[in-house]
Write a structure and sequence with these properties.
Blueprint (H helix, E strand, L loop, with lengths): L3 H21 L186 E3 L12 E3 L2 E3 L12 E3 L5
Parallel strand pairs: 1-3, 2-4
Length: about 250
């Protein structure tokens, strides 16, 4: 249950007073669960380890805030400004992040399972070793994002922008990348088994060591891509553009 005294400190003393109170009482875990925090200026606030389950932070200013190890599951963060924010190890499962600005945010080791990240801005974000299984990333901006060793199993990335993104060793099994833009992306040793890459832009993408078992690449642009892969068993590849692609070790069976 939410602690209204904690809410009073935040609202009455502002971020500066809140951060001072946290520094004086490091043993207290703030409980702001299911409270209305929308439109409040939370920039640079210290919410590390806090309980924010189900809280409403819609359109809040969270720039530079610290949510490390906080529980934000089932939170409403849509359209919030969370750029340059620290979410290391946080729980964001089932959280609504529709159109949220997460530019250059630190999301290393976060749980984003089932999160709604549709049209979110994650460009330049650090998202390594995170769980994005079943997350909705439709039309999200992930340009230059770092997603090494992350799980995007069955994630929806339809029309997502992944220009220059690093997805090395990522789990993309059964992910939907239809019409996604991955020009210059790195997918070294990534697992795209049964993924849907139909009509995706994979120009100059590095697939070295990747797994493409029954991956759908119908109509995809694979020109100038590095397809030096161990095993490639695509489901639909006859209409893909392979111009100048470096293809080796094709085991089609």
């Amino acid at each position: 249950m939410a602690n209204l005294d904690h809410l009073a400190i935040l609202k009455t003393d502002g971020v500066e007073g809140w951060n001072h109170w946290r520094s004086q009482h490091p043993h207290i875990i703030p409980d702001l669960s299911y409270l209305e925090l929308g439109l409040i200026n939370l920039s640079e606030a210290n919410f590390s380890n806090a309980n924010l389950v189900g809280a409403n932070l819609e359109k809040s200013n969270c720039v530079g805030a610290n949510f490390a190890l906080a529980d934000l599951s089932k939170c409403f963060l849509q359209r919030a400004d969370c750029s340059h924010t620290n979410f290391i190890g946080a729980n964001l499962q089932d959280t609504n992040l529709l159109r949220t600005d997460l530019h250059c945010a630190n999301l290393i080791g976060t749980n984003l399972r089932n999160a709604n990240l549709k049209q979110a801005s994650l460009d330049g974000a650090q998202i390594s070793r995170s769980n994005l299984s079943n997350a909705n990333l439709t039309e999200a901006n992930l340009c230059q994002a770092i997603l090494r060793h992350s799980s995007l199993h069955r994630a929806v990335l339809i029309s997502a922008q992944l220009y220059g993104a690093d997805l090395s060793h990522a789990n993309l099994r059964e992910a939907n990348l239809c019409r996604a833009y991955l020009l210059g992306a790195t997918l070294i040793e990534a697992d795209l088994s049964a993924a849907n890459c139909s009509w995706a832009n994979l120009h100059r993408t590095n697939f070295s060591g990747a797994k493409l078992f029954h991956t759908r690449i119908l109509g995809a642009d694979l020109s100038r891509s590095n397809l030096k892969i161990e095993q490639l068993v695509p489901a639909d590849w006859e209409m893909g553009n392979f111009d100048f692609a470096q293809v080796a070790h094709l085991d089609l069976f």
